[in-house]
Task: structure prediction
Amino acid sequence: MSDILTYTPVDDIPQIRDDLRTTFKSGVTRPLEWRRHQLHQVARLAQNEVDAICEAIARDFAKPRFEVVAMEVGTVVRSALRSAEQLEEWTKPEQPVVPESQRSWKPIAYKIPKGTILIIAPWNYPMGLTFQPLIGAIAAGCCAVVKPSEAVPHFSKLIAELLPKYLDTSAYRVVNGAVPETTKLLELQWDHIFYTGNGRVGRIVASAAAKHLTPCSLELGGKSPVFVDSSYDMELAAKRIMWGKCN
Result:
C-alpha cells in the first residue's frame, strides 16, 4: 500500500470484472451515440482537468507542463474527438475480397465489439498511454478496466477520482495497485488485454493471457537502437538522438 495511493482490495477485483461483463452483455455500449458521448467525455476530462493532470505528473517525476500538455493531454483530446467523428466509418460493414468461387455468397464482415478489456498502463507517459487504449476500447464498444502504474501514485490517484466523474462507471473502472492486484487481474478471463511496458512483464502478461486464449496487444519498450548513415550530419544526429533519449 502506497502512502499516496489507495490500492483496490484484491478481493473486489473479480466482482469489478463481473460487473463490467454484465454491462457489456446488456448492450449498453453498442449504440454509436453512447460511444460518442463517452469519447467526448474523455476529451472534456483532459481539457477540464489539465492543471490537475500536469500537477500530478510533475509531483510524480517532474515532467514539464509543456511536454504533458503537448505530448499527452493534447494527443488524448485529438484522439478522442477524431474517434468520435470516425465511428460511423470505422463500424460500417465491409464486403471482403474472396475467391471468385465464393463471390456468390456475398459475404459481409460486421464490426462487433469484443467485450471487456484490460488496460495495463506504464509510468513514463501516464496520461497518453492510459487513455489512448481506453479511447480505442470505447470506440470499439467495449467495457474496460484501467490499471494505471503504481510508479506514478499522484496521477493514478487522480485518475481514480476523475474517471467516475466523466465516464459511465458501469462500463469503465480503475483498479489501482501493484503486483498482487495486477496478478489478480491477470488471473481473470478478459476479451482482450492491452499492455504497455517492458519485455519481462510482457512475457508474464502473455503467459497469463494464453491460459484463457485471450488475444493481447503488447507495446514493449526496448533499447531504441539508432542507425546513422555515414553521410548524415553527425552533430545534428547526436542532437536528435539525445532529444529522443531524454524525452
Q: What stands out?
A: The mean pLDDT is 95. Residues 228 and 237 are 7 Å apart (CA to CA).
